[in-house]
Amino acid sequence: MAAVMSINLDTSTPGVTTRRTAVVGESFVIQVMIEDDGTGVSPLVFDTIVFGVYFNDRSPDVLGVTKTHFPHAGEFLERFPGTVDAFSQRGIVPHMELSLWPVEDELPEGYLSQAGRAGFSNPKNPFTLYPGQGPQVVAAGKLNAGFRAQNVGVSQILASASVNSAEMLFRRRPIFAKTIPSTVTVIPEREDGPVQDFASYYRDDPMPPTKNIKRKKAI
Questions:
Q1: Rounded CA gap, 55 and 159, in Å?
Q2: What is the pLDDT, as a whole number, of residue 66?
Q3: CA-CA 20 to 30 A from 210: which of 18, 42, 177, 194?
């Protein structure tokens, strides 16, 4: 398998972060990543990619997405001018909003919620990835939009093709990717800070204040 699709939960650091803890009420964005892991036919060449983002595999209300959320095309597209949105067929460049396909009737096994499907195509200038390039940003959330931690619990987030479909095509030939989910743990919001009585501060302090120490005058 050469194509690997994954979810990065920390957009502030390079690479792919697959685990994150969020507080109830917190919002965060993700990045959909793709790479050629060098274990199959390389380089990875495709002219169309379409994928959905799925979540809430244990409970339907752990995570949610904002209704106005549309993913942005990733920096990956900088090297491939002439790319068009897979659904609207309008030209797109990095950081432009992608169209979202309507709600699907059937989700990948075990998943209860979806953020919609998006994708892009470039038959005249196919996308090419080489082993060693590392994960490339295909799509990302936008500032102040994306996922929201709604209730305490654990949820995976998965980017993959819809049921019985391939993530990519090259000249209409399907190319299936290995899809790796990431995990978000949602914890309660802390209402009060830790409480420590005043006396215990001095009892437990390894360097307590000194008293009645006579200091020598400087010579």
A1: 9
A2: 76
A3: 194
Residue 126 lies in a domain: yes
| Residue 93, domain extent | 3-204
**Identity of the amino acid at 216:** K
pLDDT score recorded for residue 120: 96
pLDDT of 1 over the 90 cut: no
Residue 123 lies in a domain: yes
- From residue 166, alpha-carbon distances to 67, 83, 160 in Å are 27, 19, 8
150 within a domain of the structure (yes/no)? yes
The H or E element that residue 139 is part of is: strand 136-140
Judge whether 153 and 71 are in contact, CB under 8 Å. Answer: no
Instruction: Indicate the burial class of 11 (C-beta count within 10 angstroms; 0-12, 13-18, 19 or more).
Output: middle
119 CB contacts (<8 Å, ≥6 apart)? 48, 49, 50, 51, 85, 86, 87, 98
CATH of the domain at 76: 2.60.40.680
CA angle 179, 73, 145 (to 5 degrees): 90
Q: Is the pLDDT of residue 159 over 80?
A: yes
Question: Does the pLDDT at position 169 exceed 50?
Answer: yes
Domain count, the chain: 1
Closest CA to 55 of 115, 142, 103: 115
Predicted model pTM: 0.84
